């Protein structure tokens, strides 16, 4: 007899059939409620997980790729003489092209004011800011995670108020049923069901938004650990 609480152990090598993390190919609804993670959770519920059951991260989320991106963006903000040899040689060709273009542009213009402004703009482009490099590398994920975290905190703050509304309605309905006429008639059963569904959706959305925001934090933490 099949027992859903004690399922048959899944065969080994769960991730061999599809080794890449399926989050990127999942639909937006599946990513919103984390339904793409259900097969992996089913395997973990049926037996202890092994190394062959774990998916591989896509290239864009691996630590080496994240590190190279931040390193490239950071040294692009540093003066050429302060860059490592590899980045200095790579950027020298770009600087030569930019210098020729700048000289050509400056040859068409006259006046010391224009030249001083161009030199000041050229110097200001190298600020050696690690924060700006990190922001440039993770700008989309950071702002999405921050927005999701804000919504999650708002729902976490307002969910007790919705709980209070539900308990008040239950109390009034009970008193009105036991002593009709003692208090005004409360709203119908549909109101209570709607508040209960809203409270359930708020609690579930808090969990989903917390996982979504923690994904971006995990990428940043891997970068710092590397």
TrEMBL record:
It is found in: Membrane. It comes from Hohenbuehelia grisea. Residues 87-121 are annotated as: Disordered. Keywords: ATP-binding, Nucleotide-binding. InterPro entries: ABC_transporter_C-like (IPR050173). Its main location: membrane. Residues 93-111 have a biased composition (Basic and acidic residues). The keyword Signal does not apply. This is ABC transmembrane type-1 domain-containing protein. It comes from the Eukaryota. It is a multi-pass membrane protein. Belongs to the ABC transporter superfamily. ABCC family. Conjugate transporter (TC 3.A.1.208) subfamily.
């Amino acid at each position: 007899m099949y027992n859903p609480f004690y399922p048959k152990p899944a065969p080994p090598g769960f991730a061999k059939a599809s080794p890449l993390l399926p989050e990127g190919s999942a639909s937006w609804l599946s990513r919103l409620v984390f339904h793409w993670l259900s097969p992996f959770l089913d395997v973990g519920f049926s037996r202890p997980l092994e190394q062959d059951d774990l998916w591989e991260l896509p290239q864009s989320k691996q630590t080496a790729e994240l590190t190279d991106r931040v390193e490239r963006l950071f040294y692009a903000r540093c003066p050429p003489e302060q860059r490592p040899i590899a980045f200095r040689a790579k950027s020298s060709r770009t600087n030569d092209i930019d210098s020729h273009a700048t000289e050509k542009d400056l040859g068409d213009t006259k006046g010391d004011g224009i030249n001083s402004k161009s030199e000041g703009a050229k110097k200001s482009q190298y600020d050696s800011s690690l924060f700006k490099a990190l922001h440039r590398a993770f700008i989309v994920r950071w702002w999405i995670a921050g927005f999701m975290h804000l919504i999650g905190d708002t729902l976490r703050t307002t969910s007790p108020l919705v709980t209070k509304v539900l308990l008040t309605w239950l109390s009034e309905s009970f008193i009105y049923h036991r002593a009709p006429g003692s208090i005004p008639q409360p709203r119908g059963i549909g109101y209570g069901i709607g508040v209960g569904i809203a409270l359930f959706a708020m609690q579930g959305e808090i969990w989903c938004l917390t996982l979504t925001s923690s994904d971006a934090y995990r990428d940043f933490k891997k970068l710092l650990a590397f």
